[in-house]
Structures are given as structure tokens and as C-alpha cells.
Amino acid sequence: MNPSTYPAAQHVMVLYTGGTIGMQASANGLAPASGFEARMRDYLHSQPELVVPQWRFREMSPLIDSANMTPAYWQQLREAVVDAVDVQGCDSVLILHGTDTLAYSAAAMSFQLLGLNARVCFTGSMLPAGVTDSDAWENLGGALVTLGQGLAPGVHLYFHGELLAPTRCAKVRSYGRHPFKRLERQGGGVKAPSIPASLNYNQPKQLAKVAVLPLFPGISAEVLGGLLDSGIRGLVLECYGSGTGPSDNPEFLASLGRARDNGVVVVAVTQCHEGGVELDVYEAGSRLRGGGVLSGGGMTREAAFGKLHGLLGAGLETAEVRRLIELDLCGELL
Questions:
Q1: 190-328, which class in CATH?
Q2: 4 — pLDDT class (breaks 50, 70, 90)
């Protein structure tokens, strides 16, 4: 991607959700704090060599540690982005977000904002602004400069001078300046020939109940059944290797079959950092397919989770959700 081939941002809305970047010390440790707009303005005024677009600021409510992020908060974010672009006329949005769930949120917004002709960039920091060796200002300033140089419409993740596709990366380190990494996933899909109108960014979205379950040796049908009986409509099943699971457990497979019959959409992704799911390579995978499990190909956990929320929240019929899961919508499978 060559940023210079895209129009430079002229008007940026900064959405501040909280996170480490703006945290202040409290009696119980670092906690989200208001007042970051003034600190940001002071910093940028002290760095006249930084050429950044015009920007305005909106503090989300409540400010949160990203460990407390929820799909309901994603709805607030989507509405704030739509307001910034369609009502206030901004051509770009910079979202300041804690790193723990940043990859989840950026992936989810990629599906929540399909069709948006604007740039949305996520960033944050591993250390709060103002502390020794903090990465806060370099990430914030770098993201603004990058937007000012031009980015393709869609959602991006910027960290330590690097742009990452949100549907292809994850947080892989709990320390240092490089917590995020593109995962070398394989097992792509075919680009969806068209996207249903209900998935467009300006259409209302509902909350969907989605879960993630990693397989582990000895996992029982009771564990899977209890989760499926909790009312979820979608499940990301983190399988072994290329998409295998306990194929010699008839009760486990029967639970998957009942989930399919009850309209629960189950998507398999790999637990491995590299590679992807090909359910028909091994018998242990093809039996999962026989139970109604769909292939997530090279999708990350974060992308599959966000995609299920986006599709189910748009009110699509189950058959249409199942069809679109295995088609690429925004780079998650290509």
C-alpha cells in the first residue's frame, strides 16, 4: 500500500476511548482519565515539525481500560464514527484505544463500517503519555502524520511506525514497542461478489451473542453443550492445526450438529500462529464439517469474532451468514 496514492486527510476526528495512552495514577493503579485533549494539544504545539491534519476531539463515555471493552461499546464507536463522517464532515477518524483488546475492536470495526468512504485508524500505547520511555506520543503523532499523507478508505491499525491490516493481526506481546504482529495465516477465500445492503456502515446493527472456545485435550461434550445452550448465536471454535478436533467423540459431534440445526453458526479457526483451516484434509476435520462447522480459512480469532458479530448483528438469515462467513468481505481471507 502506497499512502501517497490516496487523498490526504483534511479533517480528523479523534475518538478517545481511554486505554493506557491517557491513563493516570490512582490509588489502585493506572486508570483511564479525562483531560487528554489538552495534553494532546500541548504536545502537538511543542512539535512544530510534525505536519498533521486539522483535528477535533471527542471523549467517549465512559472512558475504559480496554480489558472492559464490549460489543455494546463497539456499537457506540460505530455510531461515533458515522456521526463524525456523515454529520460533522470529517474524512478520517483516529481512535485512541487500549492495546489489550485493540485488535478485537479494529477487526470488529472493519465489519461494522463496510462501505465507509473514509479512513479509520486505531492506535494506542504500551506506556502512558508523559512517563519515561513512553510510546504514546510517537504512536499518536505518527498516526496523524500517516493520515495526513493519505490512506485507503477502511480501517487500519498503526503502531510504532507500522500499518497493519486489522483483520490479519493480533497482539502477540505484553511488553515493548511492538506488541502487534501480522499473523502469517493461509487458507484464503473468494472475494464476495457483492455485500448485502444491511451490512453497510449506515444501517442499524443489533447486538449478537458470540463466543470463542479453544479446543483442548479431553474437552467434553458437556463443555461445548453448556456454551451452546447459553443462548449464543455464533461460536468461534479454535481448532488444532489445519482444523481438527475430537472426531472420535460422538457426543461432541452430536452437540455440533444440534447447534447447526438450532441456527448457531460455528466457525473453525486454527490455534496456530501460522497456517489456516482446511477441514477436509484430515478425517478429524471432515467430521467437524459434517457437524456443520464452517471453515474460517486463515482468519484470526479476532477477525472471526468480529465477522460473526457483524453478520449476525445485521439481521441476516442464518443461511446467508453461513454463506458469507467463507467469503472475503474486507481482507480477512485474502
A1: alpha beta
A2: low
Q: What is the pLDDT of residues 281-298, one digit of tens each?
A: 888 889 999 999 999 999
| pLDDT of the residue at 102 | 98
Q: Which helix (H) or strand (E) holds 102?
A: helix 102-112
d(CA 275, CA 183): 9
- Classified by CATH at the fold level, domain 3-182 comes out as Rossmann fold (3.40.50)
Count Cα atoms within 13 angstroms, Cβ side, for 331: 18
Look up 20 and say whether it is catalytic: yes
Catalytic residue among 5, 17, 20, 167: 20
Domain spans in the chain, listed from the N-terminal domain onward: 3-182, 190-328
Q: What is the rounded distance in angstroms from the CA atom of residue 244 to the CA atom of residue 237?
A: 10
User: For residues 251 and 136, what is the distance between their CA atoms, to the nearest angstrom?
Assistant: 50
To the nearest whole percent, how much of the chain has pLDDT over 90? 93
Q: Kindly report, residue by residue over 178-191, the tens digit of the pLDDT.
A: 999 999 998 777 99
CA atoms within 13 Å, Cβ hemisphere of 294 = 25
Query: For the residues 84-111, what does the mean pLDDT come to?
Result: 98
Give the integer Cα–Cα distance in Å for 271 and 259: 22
Q: Which three cell numbers stand for residue 306?
A: 468480529
| Euclidean distance between CA atoms 331 and 279, whole angstroms | 21
| Per-residue confidence (pLDDT) for residue 282, from 0 to 100 | 87
3-state secondary structure 281-330: CCHHHHHHHHCCCEECCCCCHHHHHHHHHHHHHCCCCHHHHHHHHCEECC
Output the pTM of the full model.
0.96
DSSP state of 81: H
- Confidence class of residue 280 from pLDDT cuts 50, 70 and 90? confident
* Domains 3-182 and 190-328 alike in fold: yes
